[in-house]
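DATA SHEET
Item: assembly model
Revision: 1
Owner: S.N.
Input lines:
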Amino acid sequence: QKEVEQDPGPLSVPEGAIVSLNCTYSNSAFQYFMWYRQYSRKGPELLMYTYSSGNKEDGRFTAQVDKSSKYISLFIRDSQPSDSATYLCAMSGAAGNKLTFGGGTRVLVKP
Amino acid sequence: DTAVSQTPKYLVTQMGNDKSIKCEQNLGHDTMYWYKQDSKKFLKIMFSYNNKELIINETVPNRFSPKSPDKAHLNLHINSLELGDSAVYFCASSQDISGPQHFGDGTRLSIL
């Protein structure tokens, strides 16, 4: 079993819908949680960066971390076709900064 | 201006050759990384340097040798390339060892 599990999708939604993404993890030492967006043939782009449990909002994006359940989520409101990409969750522990990534969820937002 | 830039973007070469990939960041960051993304899209860390010192060295064949001539550069040299080395290699940097990481656009390595 991988340390970080993420449904590969694809997740197809109509334009304007809410996109809901999540990851589960097994390592209770993880304390820093990130979401990256990766377009085809591009590098991962940092969207959200959170520490420990709680919610964080940035524009149309909301990240949630539930450390008790080892579960993190990303919500994208008012989705646009330009949001079509692969979304990767990543996390690291307190010591050092070795990121462990999920396999990514491919999202398709249809006009 | 590109924050983290890698060269070359594409590299096609034959098995057994030696090749290098270069990475430069203009963000003033102290920490740099090399990741490998395989065909199933999983990103795995290979190496990390902080202020030119190696701090993370995952289980990577010793055919792979990173070098950091200064804080803004981290290169990756690969000897005796094998078919399994075909992947996309990403460079990343962060302000320090605990900061969020910013990635380059990758080097696509194909071994014939």
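QC remark: Chain A is about 0% helix and 55% strand.
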